[in-house]
Protein: tRNA-2-methylthio-N(6)-dimethylallyladenosine synthase
Organism: Dyadobacter koreensis
Amino acid sequence: MENRIAETLKILTETDKEACETVRVSENEPISNKKRLFIESYGCQMNFADSEIVASVMREAGFATTSDAENADLVFLNTCAIRDNAEQRVRTRLKQLNVYKKKRPGMLIGVLGCMAERLKAKFLEEEKMVDIVTGPDAYRDLPRLVEEAETGQKGVNVFLSREETYADISPVRLNSNGITALISIMRGCDNMCSFCVVPYTRGRERSRDPESILKEAQDLFDNGYKEVTLLGQNVDSYKYANPNDKNEIVSFAKLLEKVALISPELRVRFSTSHPKDITDEVLYTIKKYDNICKYIHLPAQSGNTRVLEIMNRTYTREWYLERIDSIRRILGEECGISHDMIAGFCTETEEEHQDSLSLLEYVRFDFGYMFSYSERPGTPAAKKFKDDIPADVKQRRLAEIIEVQQRISTERNKKLIGTVQKVLVEGTSKRSVDDFSGRSDQNKVVIFPRENFKKGDYVNVLITETTSATLRGRAVVEEEIAQLA
Ligand code: SAH
Ligand code: SF4
Ligand code: F3S
């Protein structure tokens, strides 16, 4: 059994190589006489977007980013606290950084993000090499904290704000392929799912001024970007009341439409949708605009109503499946759908686990992010329930979930052989310089021979081969598409 679990997890990490990234490192900017800042980001896309805000704040303070941690003057780890293993990775990385710091005693180390917010000043006690601890709403204070740290005074700012959205800060695009960019449209989360640390690390939910979002998207488009992803923990609860006329409210559907109207050449994606909030209005808006991608990430977390209830997800299995049916009804079979699923939540029985598997079989998701439950200190679940599912049972259930999802992903992708997908070229494939890599409307990674295309082109690709994670094919011209039809 253990071998099978290890094998399943290995397949997942290998096939995922093209599809996802878990750590992002800053790139080299021209240095001249500036101080060097290395930023490494963990966790979700919101953290990656925040690091771009941080780089912008620090640029104003005279720092340029570098990809070389060993020779940096300042190292920031933008951390994630979602599961214990996310935190352990940061602890291990800090030990490595301490080796560099010992060689270059002037180096400063700052811990930012969700783990900083969770542990606060305790971080300074537990990890002696750390000079600065800053939570997600306090990044404007970083220059001051760094200045003080340069004089030997360690500093903490973990103040959580009800208003901060960094709306006026122009992010420095780190790791940018120059084609796709992330835009935060809201911060925080009010949902209080019982397993989740995010409401404690990112504070209350607040939506960003739509004008600043539209300006950012327009600027990106004017600078050659072809795709924006609108980010929030629960984008469907985006809501902005005009301060001059409280009756004028911009909903997520309206915002999506406004961004889509910037240009038909600008693709629009969004993440994450919450099953309790995603409305038919949003689905019809997606349908109305060709440039809004037909892809929805709709975390399920469990397929069993009792478990969903103690998770405080505020929907039932039936509600979730109704939302899926609506997506299929309004956007059709070909709309891409992915999920998040947690295996082995407190008190979950074998039958309840089977309900998660049967949900996967019913929906036939294209892709999934699957985790075993990790108790987070201070969350409602940690206070109310015992983390009572043994580790080996959690791992076995997780492996079963992954196995079912992998089979379905492979089957769903196979069905695309012989179809033509419109692919936005993001860059050279990681495996071969002769191939380009991009994404289809449904967010599938597509690899094809580069010929004379360039980054940022939309290319019609005839799919000829697939795995569970990627599609392969070759570019086709209009006449060939007509023949295929
Ligand atoms: N806002 C998103 C999720 C953000 S966290 C939503 O509501 O769906 C990303 C995913 O991490 C979650 O969807 C969940 O599947 C997983 N996760 C969160 N807390 C977890 C925990 N304590 N243990 C295991 N997985 C967890
Ligand atoms: Fe966490 Fe739930 Fe908020 Fe998602 S919606 S961030 S899972 S509390
Ligand atoms: Fe992690 Fe914080 Fe995102 S806990 S998943 S980095 S919101």
Notes: The longest strand covers residues 420-428. Residues 236 and 279 are 8 Å apart (CA to CA). The chain has three domains: 2-157, 180-414, 420-484.
